[in-house]
Amino acid sequence: MPHLEPHSPPSEALPGPVHRRSRGWIGVLLGLAAVLSVLTITTPTHLTVDTPIPGERIGAGGVTLLVRFDPAGGTAHATFRATLNGADVTDRLTVAENGAHGTLHGLLEGENILRLEVFGSGPWPGRWLVEQSRELRLRFRPPMDWSRG
After folding, report:
1. Whole-number pLDDT of residue 144
2. I want to staple 129 with a disulfide (CB 3.0 to 4.6 A). Which of 102, 119, 125, 141 is the partner?
3. Whether the Cβ atoms of residue 121 and residue 128 lie closer than 8 Å to each other
4. How do residues 28-38 score in pLDDT, each as one tens digit?
């Protein structure tokens, strides 16, 4: 039977200062995670979509868009941007300090992606702006071709 040498426990394998340094980094990382979670929780909603409803089926009349910005302020309404299937359609909408509205035409048959973006400030000090975005999937069903009966 072979003779096995006892091995030292892992705590003896590393010198003490390395353990202290790693505990320090863990504390820093946990503190940073706590700060980021508080900032995420306290970030106001700068973009609320009233219409269209996600997954809504859109007809030949196009899609009516109604977006509200944070009534408490802090939304940089000039940064609002809307894209439909990757194409910028912001100029087809009326954008004001309290929101945006309009009707979008030219949807593709089947699924379309409407992306809305705006920047706004939060409760933290300074003038930091964060981007908020919403992505909606809309289904366009063109009218039935009369020749198909």
Report:
1. 74
2. 119
3. yes
4. 777 776 665 55
- b (16+ CB within 10 A) / e for 84-109: beeeebeeebebeeebbebebeebee
User: What is the pTM assigned to this prediction?
Assistant: 0.64
Instruction: Determine if residue 100 is left, alpha or beta; phi over 0 gives left, psi from -120 to 50 gives alpha, anything else beta.
Output: beta
Residue 71 is encoded by which pair of tokens?
């009534």
3-state helix, strand, coil in the chain (%, to 5): 25, 40, 35
Q: In what order do the strands lie in the sheet with 87-88?
A: 57-58, 129-140, 110-121, 75-84, 87-88
Q: DSSP string covering 80-124, please?
A: EEEEETTEE-GGGSEEETTEEEEEE--PPSEEEEEEEEEEEE-SS
How do residues 72-116 score in pLDDT, each as one tens digit?
Answer: 778 888 999 999 999 999 999 999 999 999 999 988 988 899 999
Asked if residues 82 and 115 have their Cβ atoms less than 8 Å apart, the reply is: yes
| Paired sense of beta strands 94-96 and 99-104, if any | antiparallel
